[in-house]
Amino acid sequence: MMLLLHLLLIGLLSPDMAQADSEILDERNQLNVTGKVSDRTTHGAACTVNGWDAPQYCMCKQGERISQFNSNHHNHYEDRKWYLKCAKIPNYIPTQVKETGSNGWDGVFSWNNGIRIERNNQFLVGLKSFHSNRREDRIYTALYTSSSKWQLTKCSGWKYINNWDGPMNVFLKDFEVIAALYSYHSNHREDRRWQMRTCTLAHECSEIIDIKYDLRRKKVLQTGNVRAGTNSVDQRRSGSPAQYQLEIFRSIRRTLSESYRFESSTTNSVELTNKFSVGVKYKIIEASREIGINLKTSTTNTISKSNTEEYSEENGRRMSWTLSCPARTKCTSTVLVKQEKISIPYTITRKAPGSNKRCYERGNLIATNSFDATFSTVDDPPIRG
Fold first, then answer.
1. How far is Cα 125 from Cα 217, in angstroms, rounded to an integer?
2. Which domain holds residue 367?
């Protein structure tokens, strides 16, 4: 009788249900391989919102990171929907994506817990999971990558990102990455509480700590005087002197603009943005002032790699003069501005914040300098007769 009942119960199981249990077991066995290389060919790079009780999958494209880690819980389904998004990492060279180990049903999920995450430089680029209605839990696997050229800096401590049955809404800043995850399950709540650690991703050569100019190899590429303005007043038939204005033509101000640009000749030079992150700001500024270059700086300890400034009063230049022409004289005045274009070899020393590793960039600083204006006046003699 008991054998007959057992056979009847087996017959009540549909083939789909039996197959589903088998697939879960196979998937779980596969996920338990720590450090396994993830295969993009199965699902490709995609981040889709899962349905309730349905498989969930997210893998960022090459050169991207998880930038949003959001989720909502449903008490009826006792499950979570995941809303993950990716963002591009400027100039990040794609590297191999690997999978973490997975949790057991109702067990702890742990990735990069109890280690110095600043040393392995791993960060999250995906997450996948599948659900069990009987267990009311998910098996999770994180997808991560790392690069020897990029380092984790300014790492946070562990922080909770949700309460039981509550939402999680994590929006990461530029270059901010998820570097560690931890979660544990409650059978009473049928949910997980999640914790994470975040870091700032920095290239090994992202911060300038020194700059040296080789003045012995300075080259003058171009030099000369620019005729920047002129004016004339004729008092030859007048017995009184007259004042007149001399100013730099507006049309010539663009020509007089001062500029600089760093042209790197190092093949592995890092071009993350159009700015240098500077560790010892005053040292870099003073070294450049000594050769007559005013680097454009900001309050966030960055210096522009290239810049152009208009020749103007706002930038400390005198643009006009009030002159006097004597009686019985014709006065013609001309403004001249000396301009020089130079090339100076430089060596920049860089490092990542918190690291002692050094890397070097060499190249030429190309600068166009316009000096303070001077003027000259020619007086024509009085008219005779």
1. 47
2. 207-379
